[in-house]
Amino acid sequence: MTAQQPSAVARHYRQGGLLRKIDEALDRLYPGHTTLTTDDLHGVDEFHIGGHAATRELAEHLELRAGLRVLDVGSGLGGPARHLAQHAGADVTGVDLTEEYVDVARRLTDRVGLADRARFQQGDVTALPFPRASFDRAWMLHVGMNIEDKGRLFTEISRVLTDNGLFIVYDVMLLGDPTLVRYPLPWASEPELSFLARPQEYRSLLRRAGFDMVAEHDHRSRAIQSLRDAGDAHRRISTPHNPPGGDTPPAPINVAMGIDASTKIAKLLKNIEEGLLAPTELICRLR
């Protein structure tokens, strides 16, 4: 990244008052609720494609057991990290560029009693503040689209992983002509802050950083249905006469992505339907 890009990316995600907006969404979902669990937060703290269902599936590929040290690269509001801490007993450290996200992640983690197993800090993931072999596992969920120098990113992750450590990438990747990709998108309002790359570019850079490919999964078809559902949920939540409570959770992108969330969802869906983009999972192991 250039010196300007990290701050521009952080500005894209920064909202101000995000914790208050999350509290309001939770109040609509659970009127009168005074205590929270990680399950209660699923509708507001995970805004990668597929949401919590994708988190659960990806977590299975990490081959976790209690006590393993996991790095969550670009940890956002902390939902995936809390899932690993609670359901796998992992010791999770999240790093995110956006200070507001880190603050909200810490506060939500305190509320659900997981601060001893999931911690978060602000930082640039291309310059990780950890010594070599600090972690047994790592993952990043929809992060690389904001990072121009992916080679440096993957080299840093390989540095802080132990030998044979697993690393999962789940990013939106480029399949078609980049000039045809429509914006705004959840990670960038304009092309200048979007660093989309093709799966073969990811594979090449990962191998150069010392990783072997274990598996690759294209989640395009599942993403289309997930984004259609997200758009429907956003419209229901945004309807003035929609009653509070019920079984419909607050749309996560609505909370985390601001007032133009519906436009971003629609553009992302269109790009995927037209074969320009696809959320892709790469499972890698450090040599």
Helical content (DSSP H or I, runs of 4+) = 25-40%
Portion in beta strands: 15-25%
Radius of gyration: 18 Å
CATH topology: Rossmann fold
- Low-pLDDT ranges: 240-253
- The chain-level structural class is alpha/beta
At the first level of CATH, the class is Alpha Beta
Record the strand order, biggest sheet: 3-2-1-4-5-7-6
Q: Which H/E pattern describes the elements?
A: HHHEHEHEEHEHEHHHE
Main beta-sheet annotation: 7 strands, mixed
Gross CATH architecture: 3-Layer(aba) Sandwich
Question: How much is the average pLDDT?
Answer: 90
Essential attributes:
seven-stranded mixed β-sheet, SAM-dependent_MTases_sf, 39% helix, methyltransferase activity, 287 residues, 10 helices, 19% strand, Erg6_SMT_methyltransf, Rossmann fold, transferase, alpha/beta
Provide a descriptive summary of the structure in words.
The protein has helices at 4-13, 18-29, 51-60, 79-88, 99-111, 150-160, 199-208, 220-238, 252-256, 261-273; strands at residues 69-73, 91-96, 118-122, 135-141, 161-174, 211-218, 277-286. By secondary structure, the chain is an alpha/beta fold. It has a single domain (4-286), classed as Rossmann fold (3-Layer(aba) Sandwich). Strands 3-2-1-4-5-7-6 form a seven-stranded mixed β-sheet, sandwiched between helices. Helix 3 packs across helix 4 (79-88), helix 6 (150-160) packs across helix 7 (199-208) and helix 8 runs antiparallel to helix 10. The protein is globular.
